[in-house]
Amino acid sequence: MFRKILIANRGEIACRIIRSAQKMGIATVAVYSEADRNALHVEMADEKVAIGPAPAAESYLKLDKIIEACRQTGAEAVHPGYGFLSENANFAKALAEAGIVFIGPPIGAIEAMGDKITSKKVAKDAGVSVVPGHMGLIESGDEAVRISAEIGLPVMLKASAGGGGKGMRVAWNEQEVREGFDLARREAKSSFGDERIFIEKFVEQPRHIEIQVLADKHGNVIHLGERECSIQRRNQKVIEEAPSSFLDPETRAAMGAQACALAAAVGYETAGTVEFIVDRDRNFYFLEMNTRLQVEHPVTELVTGLDLVELMIRIADGEKLPLAQKDVVLKGWAIEARLYAEDPFRGFLPSTGRLRRYRPPEDAAREGTIIRNDTGVVEGSEITLFYDPMIAKLCTYAEGEGMAAREKAIDVMSDALDAFTITGIRNNIAFLSGLMAHPRFRRGDLSTAFIAEEYGKNFEGAEASDEDLRILAAIATCVQLIERVRLDDLSGRLRPHPGTIRPDWVVLIDGEAVDITITSGMPSIPFDVEMIVDGIEHRVMTAWKPGDLLWHGIVDDKEVFAQIERRGAALRVERRGVARMTQLIRPSVGEIYRHMPEKAVSELDNRLACPMPGIVVSLPVEEGQKVEAGETLATVEAMKMENVLRAERNVVIKKICAAPGDVVAFDQVLIEFE
Fold first, then answer.
1. Residue 242: which H helix or E strand, with range?
2. Of 26, 68, 29, which is closest to residue 45 (Cα–Cα)?
3. Is residue 75 within 8 Å of 25, Cβ to Cβ?
4. Least buried of 67, 115, 278, 281, by fewest C-beta within 10 Å?
5. Helix (H) or strand (E) run with residue 199 in it
6. pTM value?
7. What is the pLDDT of residue 164?
8. Does residue 53 contact residue 33 with C-beta atoms inside 8 Å?
9. Active-site residues: which are they?
10. 308-316 and 11-23 are packed helices; what angle lies between their axes, rounded to 10 degrees?
11. How far is CA 352 from CA 6, 275, 545, in A?
12. What is the mean pLDDT of residues 6-10?
């Protein structure tokens, strides 16, 4: 077995690999850029080597620096994780020439499957069903339009060397084909150094379901079942689960057999994933093969009990697979939610900054459930614009079978998200909570268009039931009464408190008055009070103390978590993706609030402000130019994704305040209008 391995990656996946290596008694080497000098993976590793400036192209993508780090430290093997150099055949070749083991597939498999055009030809020859499309390279927007017309709209434009949703665009008409071709090609060149684009038919209302395969150096190939990855935004996976509620045993077996056939056809070794799109009739088509460890591998680990990273290391060392296909048993249900540094309330735009608070729920296993949080950050870490915006992968598992196990895994995930405290940057926890609560998601009615269909471009908060609002009101009452009691207990008061708390109150929830009546108990710590909230009786118990950001307690015999934030006289309470500003007041004051008019919403000003920090790619307008609603005003790159900013109404350009190549901050003015 290897004595020392180097992890050619950063963040969450580097930490994940280090944990398995440590369990196996293998020393680890971390590499890091200037931006990651104090990163968690650097702290966890036994040795660390600096490899360059913050941009990935000058550090994590420099294969010569990775190999030199191996020489310096004596690392015998390299695990690439995912992204960066993980599917780079030249990197694998360079390692082989240097006598260093690549913990990944053979070079030929990387070359065949890493090129999406070649991979589809290989898949077709191996008897794998493929999506109709044009497998040749596309040289221009005009050619893309012609080919799209032949295939039939809508189409998907994809980078040949792409992955992770980068370099991909869906086009529904000729204009979108032209725009999508240029955007996809630029993204592909920026992310992968390869601007080749191909086109295939876009299957409407598809599910994205993938098969995990394992192969060793002795010709053994098995699959570990499927992962449902249909909940996506801009082709980036958001929620993954195993197994899929959509597949029947026959379809699962057929997909698994084809995935194994493809792996065998290219002489595959190590862990890999064969991705399919599946239509409403369970017809499935090969999408691509990822010759690496997938981001969402934890859900497969949870339902199989296997450590995929450990298996990859053992396979690279020449060991045989420890199990055959007949030994693979899927138990229970697992769900993974990707926590991103983005603002779902502002079109999911990226967010950067420092994690002032980072308090994930504790990894735990109890009562047939598991909570697992894979992360590469700690409190105080900085999220920069140089790398992927993922903060963590929160996973939950529930024992059992079928939809009952899935329902339980969703409930555990909902509680875990409620218990996850992050401050300092915007994040998508509220959105993930909203997904968990969505009736369509809970019944398993999924497609890759789910987010676009249900939420559009902006998330405006989860739907709040009457019960949700009553629980928020009860929590707000509990918190603010405890604060009042704590203040009343202070010594030196000019007018001592009489020792009783009035029973009748009003809670303002976003300006709406809700009547509260305390029927029994005292608001002390621990808190155990029965109250009537808007006519419904509830019992609330908690050990919450003033200053805690996380509220944890029992409401009507049910465990409840909520995020608490004091904002002046008001209190922000968030649970299940529903956030409300609350304030506890006397009934006489509440009566006045019921008659107060609402403030009118102001109109937009005459400026285009950058909605996220990034780099200006283009400003295709001129001063004095008339621009119609929907036309492109600017393109800004953030975290390797290009974001097109369009005019929301007809405008005339008064002044351009930035230039291509400028690094711009959040809310920095790019254009002024007349």
1. strand 236-242
2. 29
3. no
4. 281
5. strand 197-201
6. 0.82
7. 60
8. yes
9. 288
10. 70
11. 28, 31, 31
12. 98
